[in-house]
Known about the structure:
Elements: H1 6-9, H2 14-20, H3 36-52, H4 57-63, H5 65-76, E1 80-85, E2 91-96, H6 99-107, H7 112-121, E3 127-131, H8 137-146, E4 151-155, H9 159-169, E5 175-178, E6 181-182, E7 187-191, E8 222-227, H10 229-236, E9 242-245, H11 251-256, H12 259-265, E10 268-273, H13 281-291, E11 294-299, E12 305-307, E13 317-323
Parallel strand pairs: 3-4, 3-9, 4-5, 6-8, 9-10
Antiparallel strand pairs: 1-2, 7-8, 10-13, 11-12, 11-13
Helix pairs in contact: 3-7, 4-5, 5-6
Amino acid sequence: MPHGSSKTNELFTDAALQADAPRCRRSGPDRPAADAADRFAWLRSVRRMRRARTGSRLGKLARMPGRLLRTRFAHWVAPHEATAKLFFGERMRVFLPEPVSHHLYTYGMFEDDLTTILLEHLRPEATLIDVGAHFGYYTLLGLRLVGESGRVHAFEPTPATYDMLARNVGDRANVRLVRQAVFSRNGTLRFNDYGRVFSAFNGYTDPQTRIDPRNSRAYPPTIVACCTLDAYCDQNGVQPDFIKIDAESAEFDVLQGAENVLQASRPAIVVELSDLPDQPNGSRCIDYLTRLGYQALEYDTTGRMRVHPPRDEYHNTRLLFLSA
């Protein structure tokens, strides 16, 4: 697969990347990789929080009144930044009432299934690529799991979201932030940026079917730099052990631009799958990775890993792919 022109490769140089990253204070000290006891304790915390946030509103209020009342009060005021305390001890800046921020501020975690996958499969000293890093929750969790000897490469293309990510990560030595979209080609991409309140829906696809039109605003598309993972990894000598992809229905495009990396490094991959109205994005990703020798896995209702049975439709489905 071609890696693009020399002009595109200039986007991957240290000078170009450092120019994108604002100077900021470190959000927390570098720490050694989480050991088995840490992971076990954090998995228990995730399971407890999963149980606590299920059920009726009255039941949740009885189980964690302080968290819910604090969040409700935060939503009564104008959109604003706040500090979320995460279940693994870090703190990060979020923007309420943005949906991901709401979960982080209330529960200290987001997407318990994907969080569990990282806790169980991202090893110390590993290299993680975080495609669609948003404000940095999985980047921070990844940094804690891989430790000082590991490495995280986090991609986030839109300026306001990237700025929050950079502030949360700080000046840690073993993370590289890249203000680019990951796609099936190198160059530029017409990208929808819906502002910080709807930043979870930013992408090159149209998310209007998932945003309440009564609350959304019309934001003009912006042009962002984009690259393939093949080009980025080749230019920087990156051999990923784990790739997390949440690209708002552009996951198939991301995978198409990573075929060489997937063939050479055989990383574990976790992908959030959502179909578009006119194309079965989920089944396309599964078929593509199956052809490359991967097996799709998921957690069942009891929390056990199993082989994923194919579906006709996919919506916010997170699957783990391991080399068969």
